[in-house]
Amino acid sequence: MRSLRFRLPALFLAGIVVAGIVTALLAIRLFQDYAEDDTLSDLRRQASGLAELYAKQADLSVGQGSDPPRFAAPLLERATDTRLYYAGLPIFPGQISGLRRLPLRYLDQGVLEEGKVQTLEFEPPGSDRTFLAVAQPVTLGGETFGALVLARPKTQLREQWLVLLARVGLAFLAGLGVAVGLVWYLSRRLTRPVLALSRAADQVAQGRYAAELPETRSRDEIGHLTERFREMTERLAEADELTRNFLMSVSHELRTPLTAIRGHVDALREGLTEDPDTRAASLEVIRAETDRLARLVGDVLDLAKLDAHRFTLMQEEVDLRRLLEQVYQGFADRARERGIEYEQAFEAEAVLVTDGDRVLQIVSNLLENAFQWTPDGGRIELGLTATNGTVLVSVSDSGPGIPAHERERIFRPFWSRNGQGTGLGLAIASELAEALGGELGLESTPGEGARFELRLPAA
Length: 459
Prior knowledge:
The chain is of the alpha+beta class. It contains ten helices and twelve strands.
């Protein structure tokens, strides 16, 4: 009963049943009012004609001196499906004209004296049934003597209501059967993809990201949810793979300097390096590997702060040209060792109010990436231009370039094209660029190198 496959059709059916009951009650109530109004209208019409006939016959009998008219009341009652009563003074002494007598107390005397038609409900003497009646005044010579009353038992109306109720009930049951079939079909159609998504979610929760998802044949909410779920599982699978890659990469990156540091420390502790130059070289290696560890830990912390939006920036005047010259010189030795054609193209003077250390970090990460992918004897260029209120810092290389399908991935944390390194450099550079109010762009043609461009607002 907790399943959506039960609750959804149950809710629909409950709504249909309630709507059907309300509609049936309204229909019966409207029919009751209509039947009563129609009955009263029929009684008024019959009473008017009979009262006129009764008065005319009575008037003729008075004028001709004949016996007073006598109505065949049983025949009239059968013909009109009513009961006929007369209430009031007899037109002639002893005249009853074959009609049932009805005491005047059942009528409104004021309305009767005004000669108006009135409707009433009453129980005749000696009867336990309630009648719906119309009293038509009988007037002779301008004087109202009484009223001709036509009445029908209300049980006739109830019989009509019962017939209608039976027919409405049959129609309701037929409609309910159709609704049950329709709801069953719609519920299966709606809940089948939802149940498939639920099973897939259970598999994803267990770490199985290759869960089978329903086919999205429609563009409705279920189709949209399925597409978003498929994208989510792909992202989760990719994030899981990146996390594994990160753990392996960080483990490797940590193990290499730690092994070097441990080896040199053991050598120094055991006195294996007595020569001062050798000791100095060991200490230099320890210092370099320590700096390498510090950079790795710093990258991880920077990324965590950027993701948590808890990163603070300094605001200071920065001579961007001097800063880039400093970065450029820091990679000059590596370029000479590998025979790389290393150039600078500074075409602008730019002084910005920004965080100089973070700009230095971005450009260093871009150059580090360029040196990683540029082969020996290749070419790397660091450029600076300014146009339309924007300062552009570019790093171009002659590496293998970046395919179109990887251009978005390379800015994700822990993703590396060759499985080497931590994959944090470009991710941190992109996040820092946005934090500084700029952006990091990429232009690349496979086989012809890549060009990264840091765009910062001049103001």
